[in-house]
Amino acid sequence: MDVLTRALRSGGPRVEPAANWRIALSGVLALIGLALSVYLTITHYEPHFLVCAESGAINCQLVTTSPQSYVLGIPVAVLGLTYYVVACVFNSPWAWRASDRRIHLARVALSVVGIGFVLYLVSAELLVIKAICIYCTAVHVVTFAQLILVMATVPTMLGWGRQPEPPARRADRRPAASRSRSR
User: Fold this and answer.
1) Gap between the Cα atoms of 125 and 21, Å rounded
2) If you average pLDDT over residues 68-78, what whole number do you get?
3) Spatial separation of the C-alpha atoms in residues 158 and 150, rounded to whole Å
4) 158 three-state secondary structure
5) Taking residues 136-165, what's their average pLDDT?
6) Helix (H, G, I), strand (E, B) or coil at 96
7) Residue 83, exposed/middle/buried by CB under 10 A (0-12, 13-18, 19+)?
8) pLDDT given at position 70
9) Amino acid 53: pLDDT
10) Residue 146: burial class (beta carbons within 10 Å; 0-12, 13-18, 19+)
11) For 49, which DSSP code?
12) pLDDT range class, residue 124, cuts 50, 70, 90
């Protein structure tokens, strides 16, 4: 429980900055996910804008209009759009450079929830609907890439898994000549 308590404290050890390329890639992935989610939301309400095969294993129309395209009465496309609006905030340069550990922990939690939902959606496509949507798959790939990036970066930023530095050894303050005589 000590690890969890330390992780949740915002006044804990200093947050190490992430590499600039990781920050940029994270932001780009979030924007790609947002763009795809906007498109899927538009096509949910206006299906004639959907440009995708409509037969065989790849059938975006079948996937986006199936009963599985709703969760608790909410269109999955709207949930994806909401997710990526939040993801854009937590993957912005400002959020990556924040010193408050809770922001970084929220980014990890968001990524885990996102990939959990992706696993549900992929299983629904493959096992229930028996068709896949290429745009949905693109969102799934972006979500997975975001998870990998976040999980490869945030724990290191927060100092998880880092061995504490050993206490500095006190230097023998006697002159070298007197040290050699006492041996």
Assistant:
1) 34
2) 95
3) 12
4) coil
5) 85
6) helix
7) buried
8) 94
9) 77
10) buried
11) G
12) very high
How many alpha carbons fall within 13 Å on the CB side of residue 49? 10
Residue that is written with structure tokens 């990556």 in the block: 96
Q: Is the pLDDT of residue 182 over 90?
A: no
Residue 166 makes CB contacts below 8 A (sequence gap 6+) with none
CB 64 within 8 A of CB 36: no
The domain locations on the chain are 18-161
- pLDDT above 80 (res 2): no
| Chain Cα centroid distance, residue 135 | 19
Helices (H), the chain: 2-8, 20-45, 60-65, 76-90, 93-96, 101-123, 134-157, 176-181
Range 18-161 has CATH code 1.20.1440.130: yes
Give the residue from 139, 116, 115 showing the smallest Cα distance to 60.
139
- Comparing CA positions, the residue from 23, 154, 146, 127 lying closest to residue 80 is 146
What angle, rounded to 10 degrees, do the helices at 20-45 and 76-90 form? Answer: 160
- Mean predicted confidence (pLDDT) in 57-81: 93
The answer, yes or no, to whether residue 143 has pLDDT greater than 90, is yes
